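Appendix B. Extra example for self-study. Work through it before the problem class; the solution is given directly after the inputs so you can check yourself.
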Amino acid sequence: MAAGGRTRVFTVLLASVFVCACAGAAFAHKIHVFATADGTEISGSVYFSGGGAAADLAVEVFGPEGAPLGRVTTDGDGEFTWTAGFRGDHTFSVQTPDGHGASYTVSAAELSDSLPSAAGGRSQSVEAAPVQKPASAAAATDGDLAARIELLGKQVTEMRKQLDRFQERKNLQDIVGGVGYIIGIAGVAFYLSARREARGKRG
Amino acid sequence: MHIVDGALSVPVLAASGASAAAAVGIGSVKTDYESIPRVGVMASVFFVASLIRVPVGPSSAHLLLPALMGIVLGWAVFPALAVALFLQAILFGFGGITSLGANILVMGVPGIACHYLFGRSVRAIRGQESVFALSFTAGAAGIIVAWLVLGLLLMASGRSFTAAVVAVGAAHIPVVVIEGFVTAFAVSFLHRIRPLMLAGPALTTVPED
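Solution. Structure tokens for the complete assembly:
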């Protein structure tokens, strides 16, 4: 009778675990930063898992060597902009007061060639690479091309956000896998404990 | 309420890591053969429960169940949390490996506090309503204690205690109520159909036969 009662409790608990797992598990209050560069303007957004915007949050900006460059505050939609003063890696970092944080680096290669390079020699070689190709393009199509590039940039930003959201989604396999690990660890604990008990009885 | 890597200062990480290791040690010693399945089941329940999101404004919060774990497990709450939090960190990037000790304390301290404050009385009383009311209080208190421990850890790392308490509190006030109900339903259920589940590990050594 007692064994029957125990089995029932475990069945109920395990069932509730699986019901919970299927109820659409997701990450809580984790924060993300994403930014892209367009010429000298860097625009980015800060959002919580699930897509909610992080408004009025301070974003710290750091240079290539981690030197602080300043800070900006996100607007009501969690967006911010930063004008780059030089061509080098810019790192945007946020921290919420409750101990969550994230950062994202816009690499030197994404910024306009017209900017002065950062102190390091690395970006100099990057600057040497682009030859004056745009000059050969017909002037009439320039505006059209710029519009298309801008559109492409927006699409890439959207895809990046989708990717972040996808990585956030917990799939059932991971959850079941985790529960499996716990059962395995409990099994090992059982074995060790049983051995200790057997030795205690013999001794 | 999971603390990520890099949020706490190194001395705080070291101190919380050491105290969490000691607590896990005590918990493991106190866990006897009979109570291992219970510890495993509660670790699984916690592992899954903290993945359930409760949307609060633009952000969200999740269930922690420290009171339920404390009342059911006693000191074994620490080894259960160690396993579940480690798996959450490596599988989901929830919390972090260096902040594992701090996270064990954030959720384990309220657990053990509820064990001492409410565990004995929940086991002793008989009326269904009283069990429900007491375990609701335990569930709500558990979150408030977790919230304070988190605030203290952040303060010890040189962050503003008030800012942390306000930020966490804003997201966790609904959780306090939800936790109260979840704990109350779970504890009343166990109290009715399997009261032995509510006995702390140290008490199960009393032979059943």
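Self-check: Chain A touches chain B through 51 residues (CB under 8 Å). If your reasoning did not lead you there, revisit section 3.
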